[in-house]
Amino acid sequence: PARVQYLISRNIRYAEDRMEDDHWATPLATLLRGSGDCEDHVLLKQAILTAAGLDVSQTRLLILETSKGRGHMVLQVLGPQPTILDNRYRYPVTLDHLRQDTITALATDHAYFVVN
Question: Could you give the 3-state DSSP secondary structure of residue 56?
């Protein structure tokens, strides 16, 4: 996960969707464009990790509300020491780094959960 986080943060530029055209791009579209917003980064990272052999059930998409009231998405990679792949950081971080954010929902390979 650390290598994927570093490579994506170095090579895929952050670019917001237009407000009227918010969509989740496919990993291939993000690669070809060389840019994407937070959910595009997350889907690309998840695709690379699963292509490398990580079971998709070992990942979660975390939907956040940032301390500034904006929506954001990160990828959580489960394991003995779960890590967060967040385009705001160059390297993986722990869940503690998201203290200023509120997790509002999470999606797994089987379900979507709203967090109260």
Answer: helix
The pTM for the full model equals: 0.92
Per-residue pLDDT of the chain (116 residues; tens, 9 = 90+): 999 999 999 999 999 877 667 788 999 999 999 999 999 999 999 999 999 999 999 999 999 999 999 999 999 999 999 999 999 999 999 999 999 999 999 999 899 999 87
DSSP run (H or E) holding 25: none
Phi-psi region of 33 (alpha: psi -120 to 50; beta: other; left: phi over 0): alpha
**Quick one: 24 exposed, middle or buried, by C-beta within 10 A (0-12, 13-18, 19+)?**
middle
> How many whole angstroms separate alpha carbon 44 and alpha carbon 50?
10
Q: Which residues pair with 83 in a beta bridge?
A: 77
